Structure formats: structure tokens, C-alpha cells
């Protein structure tokens, strides 16, 4: 475990939040997972329990699932979640005002020594950090989906982040048995998503122009490049609404094939249909 961190509060129990809570619990931290409604907390905990059980089944867990799960406590109360936390990781929707409002409250309830981190994927860390009195203790910890299976985590230094806070965050990521990548320039989408997004966009423009088909583009990247998923499969996996929202908030153009699906509420795996139809059971076979 990272030397000064024993208790981690994760704010948000969605796909990223419950996954971050899970990796922290697996690494031995005491975890509070908090969301604004009991049903969100319960859904997140159900998924966390499923995932821990699956890891155990696959022989990927060093302890009993029950031991890992005993480290996770849940609440809807912010003060309870962050009051004793040494590290607070926020993983709520990508809305700047929502994140700022949350951190203004966290600033009130958390200990002055706690490190505050955002899991934002598309906003600037420094813009969120302005919500707290001491932005020196604020950094980015950008996990990838699903956190429990993705090795990489971006550790982002905001304009005012204290180097000691970056070091603590870096050490925390290492203690999760993951690979930290230090991002020194706080640009929207950091490094990984800036590299990844054009791939998904280009596939989208080609589909719009009739120059590529969904399975064909995915197969090209999976079989020719060795990627675990092609661009459309990955978009379905992360949620098409998440992708479109991240482009629109910076006024970046979005391929029509993404927008029409979002307008139809075909958001990918989570709604059963996106570029692929998961309800029909055809899933992704590239043929
Ligand atoms: N927890 C536990 N087990 C899991 C799991 C999870 N979260 N997800 C999948 N598994 C299990 C599956 O259920 C399966 O079990 P089964 O064989 O009993 O059904 C087992 O792991 C293996 O599943 P797969 O055969 O599907 O596993 P793969 O070897 O293909 O790996 C994957 C799955 C890790 C998701 C892989 O497909 C992958 O790496 N995909 C790319 C993901 C990626 O690129 N993520 C980054 C997206 S960008 C991002 O996150 C940016 C952010 O800002 C939004």
C-alpha cells in the first residue's frame, strides 16, 4: 500500500467508480464507495461483487472474495465517505459544474491532508481543482475501463499540483499493481484518449462515407494490429453517449453514425445495442 494512504473514498459507483473501489480493496485499502442514491450504490456493489467473484473463479485473486469485499463500505452520505479518507477519487459524470460542486463539499468534509483526485477523462484537472481551497493537493488519476483489467493509469499533474502529491498518487497506482503514466501537461483528454479518439473518429467518418463497415474496421484492428477490441466494439463498450459528450463539450465534430445511435438511445452494451446488437446475441464476431 502507498505509505500514507490507508483509506480511500471513491465518489461515484458507476462503471469506473465501482471498478476503482474494487482495485483499491484488492490492494488492501479500506474503501468507502459513495453515490447520491441508494439504488446507484447497490448497483455498483452488485457489479463489484460479480467482478470479484469472477476474478476468484479465474484464479486472479490472492485472497478470498469475502476478505476483499469486507474492505468495501458503502454510503450515500458524503461526510461519512470522505471524513476519514487519505485519498478521495471522484468518478462521477463528465460535467464540470457537477464535479466542482462535489469537490467544494469534499473540501469541507475531508481532512486537510487528504489527496484529492479526479478520474475525469476529458476535462482539465486544473479547471476542477479551482473548486477547492488548496489546489496543490489536487491531481488526476485516470483509470481505464474496466479498471480491474486495465493495467495503465494516468497520473495527471494540474497547474498547481504539489509534486509531493503527484508522487503520492504515483506510488498509490504502483501499490495497485498497475502501471502509472505521468502526465505533466494538463490538456483535455490527457495522453491516452488524445491518441485513442482519432482512431474511433476515423472509423466513424469512414462508416459515414460508406468507405468501411463496422465489422470490417474492427476486424482490421483486432487481427491486423492485435488490439483487444476494434474501434466500434470499444465505443459500444464505453458507451456511445460518453464518447459523443466528450467530443461535444469541446465543440469537436462527431461522426453522424455516433450521433444517430445516441439519438435512438442505442448507447452500446449498456442498452443492448450500439454498433452491434447484443440483445440478438450476435455480439461481436467480425464476420
Ligand atoms: N471483472 C472481472 N472479470 C471480468 C471483467 C471484469 N470487469 N470483465 C471481463 N471479465 C471476465 C469475463 O467475464 C470473462 O469471463 P468468462 O470467460 O467466464 O466469461 C473473462 O474475464 C475473460 O473475458 P474476455 O474473454 O471478454 O476477456 P478478454 O481477455 O477479451 O478481456 C477486456 C476483456 C479486458 C475487456 C479486453 O477485451 C480489453 O482489454 N478490451 C479493451 C478495453 C480498453 O481498451 N479499455 C480502455 C477504453 S478507453 C477508456 O477507458 C478511457 C476512459 O476515459 C473512458
Automatic annotation (TrEMBL):
Keywords: Fatty acid metabolism, Lipid metabolism, Lyase, NAD, Oxidoreductase
UniProt superkingdom: Archaea
One of the GO biological process terms: fatty acid metabolic process
A GO MF label: enoyl-CoA hydratase activity
Residues that span the membrane, as ranges: none
Domain 3-hydroxyacyl-CoA dehydrogenase NAD binding: 7-186
Domain 3-hydroxyacyl-CoA dehydrogenase C-terminal: 190-278
Membership in a protein family: In the N-terminal section; belongs to the enoyl-CoA hydratase/isomerase family. Belongs to the enoyl-CoA hydratase/isomerase family.
Stated name of the protein: enoyl-CoA hydratase
